[in-house]
Amino acid sequence: MQDDVAQRQALLQAQLEALVTAHVGVEHQPLFRSFMAAYFEMSSQAALTARTPEQLFHIAQQHWMMAFQRHPEETLIHLKPPTRPGGLAALRTVTDDVPFLVDSIAMAVRDAGTAIDWTIHPVIQVLRDTHGHMTRVAGVGDGENPAESLVYVEFEPLASDEAYEHLQESLEQVLGELRLVVEDFPAMLDNLETTQKNLSGDFPSRDQEELAEAQAFIDWLSLDHFTFLGYARSRAEPVDDGIKLSLDHDAGLGLARPGSRYANAEEFIAPHDEMAKYIAHGRLVVVTKANARSPIHHPHYMDVVSVKRLAEDGTVEGTDRYIGLFSLDAYINRPRDIPLIRRKVNYVLDRSRLPERSHSGKHLRDIIYQLPRDELFQCSEEELYSICMGIRALRDRHHLSLFMRRDRYGRFYSCMVYLSRERYSRELRDHVTAELKQLCNGSSVERTVDFLREGLARIHCIIRIPQGTHLAMSQAQVEERLLAVTRTWADQLRDILRKEGEHGEEGAGLAQRFGDAFPVGYQEKTDPMEAAADIHYLAQLNDRQPVLPSLSINSGDGAACPTSLRLYSQKKPIGLSDVLPALENFGLRVVRQEPTQVIPRDGEAQWVQVFDVQVHGDCALGPVQQKRFFEEAFLECWHGNTENDGLNRLVLLAGLNSRQIVCLRTLTKYLVQTGLPYSQNYMEQLLADHASIARSLVQLFETRFDPGISDERRKNEGLKLAQNLDHQLDQVASLDADRVLRAFLSVVRAGLRTNFYQPDAAGHDKSYVSLKLDPSQVSELPPPLPMYEAFVYSPQMEGIHLRGGPVARGGLRWSDRREDFRTEVLGLVKAQMVKNAIIVPVGAKGGFVLKRGNPADREAWQQLGITCYKEFIRGLLDITDNRVGDQVVPPASVVRHDGDDPYLVVAADKGTATFSDIANGLADEYGFWLGDAFASGGSAGYDHKKMGITARGAWESVKRHFREAGKDIQTAPFTVVGIGDMGGDVFGNGMLLSEQIKLVAAFNHMHIFIDPDPDPMTTFAERQRLFNTRGTTWEDFDASLISDGGGVWSRSAKSITLSEQACNALCIEQRTLTPAELITAILKAPVELLWNGGIGTYVKGSNESPAQVGDRANDAIRINGRDLRCQVVGEGGNLGLTQLGRIEYALNGGCINTDAIDNSGGVHSSDREVNIKIPLNQRLRDGRLDRETRDPLLERMTDDVATAVLRDNYVQCLALSLLEFNAASRLDEHANHLRTLERQGSLTRSVEYLPDDEGLSERRTRGKGLTRPELSVLLSYTKNALFDAMLATDVPDDPFFDQDVLNYFPEELVESFREDLLAHGLRRELIATVLSNAVVNRMGFSFVHRYADEHGLSLHRIVKAYAMAHAVFDGDLYWAPVDGLDGKVDSQVQLRLYGRVIGLMKHVTTWLIHYKWGRRPVAEAVNRYRKSIGELEAMLPDILPGSYRQEWDQAVAGMGDDGVPEKEARLLANTMVLGSAPDVIELASQAQVPLKLAAEVYFLVGDRLQILWLLSAIIDLSVQGRWQALARANLREDSYRLHRQVAAKVLEQEGDNAAARFAAWEDKASRKVAFGIHRLQTLQADSPHDFMTLAVGVRELRKLRSL
């Protein structure tokens, strides 16, 4: 090994020699070789091998060149920054060799903030000439002869040129100070000897032991135990208040020389005033620390040994201060070997009274020996004893102990912290140091750590403090603070937990569970107090509460806003994909997320997830309320009690709580459904952008509906809020925002009622909110506007209920149109309004959608649907008044902004066919007055499918269509295609209503059925079998009964190949089709009837888009109305065709009404059920009836109800035929009526797809009138308008109409409960319904409005006049015979026959109006006229003279020719003259003559004066426009009145019979009479006749009247 080293050295020497030879001049080579040899001689092999030979040569050469010339005592310093990137800086010095040189230079380099990489320190004996040039190298320094010290250092580069300049200055200063120390060292030793001599004097007044110890210590110092760096002398001068010290500047040596940076003792050691305080103290020697680190040898704070200088009398005349560093021996020698310290040690041991050889005594000695030596030097005996005893007590303690000492001069605190080795850590050390520095207000800290025996660790801190600083806390208080710092994180956590809880038991339990549950990473970043808060949240977690939030709010400067969110969860962390969208919706942007798994001692893993968050916007609340609102809202959202949407950001931005957000969400969800052209997301953003307005909207809602607010306060605060909102909205800049926010405001103002403040059974807020609105006050609503609507919102469903009036009914459907279910319901309610014109309630419709669940799981989906249906029903009942006896009782906790509204009934619809009992159960739960009349069709109601009532009602329309086409489908076979299957109510029942049906094809959502040439009888039986067998489909149809070429195919098939027979049946050529193509072909099939008994819209108008239809499921198969080739469409199902599709089909010659007309049987039977149950259920509540009696009664009346329903279907369909009969010629009349309804606000043409004026003009040009679908709409709207007009008056209160009430109900019910029926709660509505239907069905929809316009009367006056006319003549005596002619005469003949009865009713109605009967009781008119009319009719036709009898005979003969039986012909011929019966009766009464005579006179006058002709001519006048029609009516009425007046004149004459009296009248003015008769005869002979000529005839009658 040594040989190897020698070889390497030899190699290096050879390489260096070669470099010298190559790069140094020949003349310098000898000197340089000797220099280089000395230069590297003392360097270690490791140092030399750290550099290449070339580098070593270069280093030596540069240093040689630098040292080549140097003057005595000159110090050369050269700094060289690196010459290349990544290189090292270099320092070269040349100076006289002195002690501590390398250490001092290295300290200066390190103080510059860099690290030394490599260094060598050759000491060389050099000879120089007088100019300082090197002449010879004598060798390395031997310590005896003068030598020069060369130091070379390579170090990391400094940051800047200024740093190199500063290092240069520091080196010059340090080397200068080192030179002074070396120069003054002998003088300092001399002073030490002088000090020793001074202490050796005879001072009997001084403590001799103290003197001896001081002398011993000085001797000890002189034995190389102290490195002397400086000396300072002070003089003591007596002053008034003691002794004053002053520095003797000239006496300073070494670092304390005058002018040195350490010369000022006040800065370097302590202020003289502080030092003077201890002059009188008995201690002669004081060891302390200077205020500065040593620049020489070691970078420690310098030690100062102060020795009092005594005068001859023993008084203190000054101090000698020796500045330097204790040698290593001072720190490693036994304390008992060091003077001063040994006395303190002995004092402690003696005072402890512990035997020195005992275990306790040895332990105490160990404690002393292990103390920092500086402490032994500096502390007093008392301080040392206290410290040692304290440390000794640590044997029985496990926590931290502090021993704190203030420097006698007030410059620092010495703090020793003892604790167990196990508890020590670097983090704890840093915490202790930082805490002590902070408590002491320290400017700097020196810290050492020692690991002692007995398993202890000691942290010793010297805390430098501003001069004179005194700690305000006691040592015990500081120790307590350190305990908090040094306790382990887990200890602190346990302490916090144990201090909590009422008796500490709860906290102890939590400490046991969670004390060790947290990982280190969490502990490093989380304060124990914060962790304790986390634990309290974690402890609350359970299966019912698996997640908890905790929001942290920054409450510093500015608005308080969240900075972090902690989420606590069980078993597994919350997925970011689950929580981030929610946080975004709350307006929180997640900057960082850190999860921590917590494992309690006795349970499964739990998680704490910390999210650093930022808020988009300003927060509106203070920290406490903000935290509470957010956490409550987050939990509500997380558990699904509220929705996860952008409205949640208003919790922070607007300061709204979760419940208030529900209020805004209800309004938002409603507005989404209104058709407002903005998405929910956009509306949410606008609310967030205008958070103050959002808050004001909620406040307005609360003020409007909070039942806890007095009416006066509600009014005053509501006014202020409204003004404030208007002002805020005026400041909104965006048009979109203004429109949306005003829409919100309109909904709040339109609100009439809400259940928002109703608690549930547990006293909590209900999970759903219902809001009743006045649609007329809501901006942005599309027409038509219902009278009321109720919106029900919950997180899992939404529903809407639209009502056309206070008494309204209609089904509630389970909609699948989540985005626009209000649009769907609005379309349905529009049809329902038309449909319900036939019944008491006006139209209503409701629908709800599910927002959760999976339709694929049918059972769960059905159960969820039932749950949501119940929620919907509850929402409606919550805000509906109840009846208790005759009193209306408002719902609890509901503020009403409308009148009493107790009528609410519902019915089954799509998806809710079996839910009626559920609804009735809820009505019973609420104690609702309607009981099981609330939802018709339940288990104790009329089952539509069992009755087949919907299909049977529609079948009445189908039969009429065919009858008017000349075919009786009950006896003659006819072809049909259908939509549906035999398991369905409408389709199944419908396809069993005639045994002559030839069902060629049908389809439902599963199958397609084709039977090209079905046998009616066998297929009827098979269809009946399928209908009666539950769960059958078209696949169950007996294939053997299907004709050749037919079959059943699945709609899921890729393609279907048809037989030739099937293609022929459908009139198509293509053989292979897709299922969709085949269904389209079926819809287009040239059959006689298309029967719709399914769900969906299959026919539209050519100009309608699929989107407008709103039934995406059937877009692929839907056809246009003009493509239908069937003769008749029967709409048993709803919405099978759009209204435009119907109109298009009808204009092409198809026979169709509307679904509202055809399938009204279902709603009609339901309404009759409700109306029957209302009085019966009242008896149930009163105990006057039981269910065992009521339910069988209801069942027995089933056929009576069906008969009544079908009768109404029959009459309403007939009414359409009467309107259609001459629709083209009456187009202007119909158009005027349409405009009247529109002008009155009852109708919007565009909504109902009625033609505009341009369209009407086109129809007029084409000679076409309104189609049946259009007439259907006008028919229903007219009924509804008349119903409303009637209810607003006292007409329904006329006792005569009690009979209409009784006639409405089955006979058995009337017999048993007559008085209950007359006291029916809907008596007025029943009468209004009966009267409006009667007048419109029989007289046409324009009759009442036109007469009201012509006579300047209200609508109800005309209706009452008609009802009176009908009663007076017992109108059914005339209507019924014509109805009985169905199938017996041509339909066109039958319709003309109805015209005769209509004419009679019109005339009598006009007569009653003219003679002011409209304001009198109906019974009065009946009593006055009915009997006499009967008598008069019995005289016909015998009393008719000449032209009257001739016309009567012609009419009878004509009807006979048309196939009308004679009895009916004679009855209908009588209507031609019976219109004059009231005049005749009044004439007889006035003239006091027999009725027969009055009649004979009346008709004789008409015959002789040509009045019959004149009236016929007036009636036959062709009119154009409203005013011509009015002129014609005036001529006609004038003629009738003049007729009566002339007859009265004749009756005034004497005579035995009519002829005699007429002759007597004629004789009185024979010339004038003759002229008048001649004029009238002449007019009759001339033709044609117009208004002018006929007006002349009327004028002649007026002349004759005056005779």
Task: Give short descriptive properties of this protein.
1603 residues; six-stranded antiparallel β-sheet; 51% helix
Tell me the number of strands: 38
Sheet-strand content, in percent, reads 15-25%
The gyration radius over C-alpha positions equals: 59 Å
Number of distinct helices? 63
How would a crystallographer describe the biggest sheet?
A: 7 strands, mixed
Terminus-to-terminus distance: 170 Å
pLDDT average, as an integer? 89
Helical residue percent? 40-55%
Global outline? elongated
Question: How would you characterize this protein structure?
Answer:
It is a single chain. With 1603 residues, the protein is α+β, with helices and mostly antiparallel strands. The chain has 63 helices and 38 strands. The strands form nine sheets. Strands 20, 21, 22, 23, 24, 25 and 26 form a seven-stranded mixed beta sheet that branches. Strands 1, 2, 3, 4, 5 and 6 form a six-stranded antiparallel beta sheet that branches. The chain has a six-stranded mixed beta sheet with strand order 32-31-30-29-35-38, sandwiched between helices.
Helix and strand arrangement:
Layout (H helix, E strand, L loop, with lengths): L1 H22 L5 H13 L3 H5 L3 H15 L8 E5 L8 E8 L4 H11 L4 E5 L2 E6 L5 E7 L7 E8 L5 H39 L8 H18 E14 L2 E13 L10 H4 L3 H5 L8 E9 L7 E10 L5 E11 L1 H5 L8 H12 L6 H12 L2 H6 L2 H13 L7 E6 L5 E9 L5 H14 L4 E8 L4 E9 L10 H12 L2 H11 L5 H10 L5 H6 L2 H11 L8 E8 L6 E10 L5 H10 L2 E11 L7 E10 L7 H16 L11 H4 L4 H16 L6 H10 L1 H15 L5 H20 L4 H16 E4 L14 E5 L14 E7 L2 E7 L4 E2 L2 E3 L6 H15 L6 E9 L7 H21 L3 E3 L2 E3 L26 H11 L17 H4 L1 H16 L9 E6 L5 H6 L6 E7 L3 E4 L5 H13 L18 E4 L5 E2 L2 H7 L5 E2 L1 H9 L5 E4 L6 E2 L5 H4 L9 E2 L7 E4 L7 H9 L7 H4 L1 H23 L4 H10 ...
Parallel strand pairs: 24-26, 25-26, 29-30, 29-35, 35-38, 36-37
Antiparallel strand pairs: 1-2, 2-6, 3-6, 4-5, 4-6, 7-8, 7-11, 9-10, 10-11, 12-13, 13-15, 14-15, 16-17, 17-19, 18-19, 20-21, 21-22, 22-23, 23-26, 27-28, 30-31, 31-32, 33-34
